[in-house]
Amino acid sequence: MAADMTITIITPEHTVLKNVPADAVVVPVVDGSMGILKNHAPMVANLRIGVLRYKDGGGAFKRVAVTGGFVEVSDNKITVLADAAEEAESIDVMRAREAKRRAEARLRDRKASIDRTRAEAALRRAIARLRAAGVLEDEK
Domains plus CATH for the chain? Predict the structure, then answer.
């Protein structure tokens, strides 16, 4: 059965997905995760750093790491305006692991000169990229 719902993901740099058919979408929102199915009520929500999943026509969930922004649902069209987004297959796993390692090292360092908020955000981004790539287990 063909999907009657589509997803588009746009970042300031490029369009990651454009009108891709989707049977179901799960987005990381500020207060958890939200599932979206066909005929969902219109809405807008804030995204958090995490993994967006969408089920394509083949029945498999595909993953996209997102780093904040907004999601809008209207007339079976899901539009994600993300600060940054990266499809699982284009994630450089070694680079993401290194970013995670650096962020963890910065957070272990107790010096007052580090920006903890920035280091924590860098760690969350690296973990989201690794989860999207399938290297780390998803949150339960």
Answer: 5-88 (2.60.15.10), 92-132 (1.20.5.440)
Burial of 53 from C-beta contacts in 10 A (0-12 / 13-18 / 19+): buried
CB-side neighbour CA atoms (13 Å) of 61: 14
CB neighbours of residue 35 within 10 Å: 10
Q: Residue 99 contacts by C-beta under 8 Å, 6 or more apart in sequence?
A: 122, 125, 126, 129
The pLDDT tens digits of the residues spanning 89-137 come to 999 999 999 999 999 998 888 776 778 888 899 999 999 999 999 988 7
* 48 in Cβ contact with 73 (< 8 Å): no
Task: Give pTM, 2 decimals.
Answer: 0.87
Nearest to 76 by CA among 45, 43, 41, 39: 39
Of the CA atoms within 13 Å of residue 122, those in its CB half-sphere come to 18
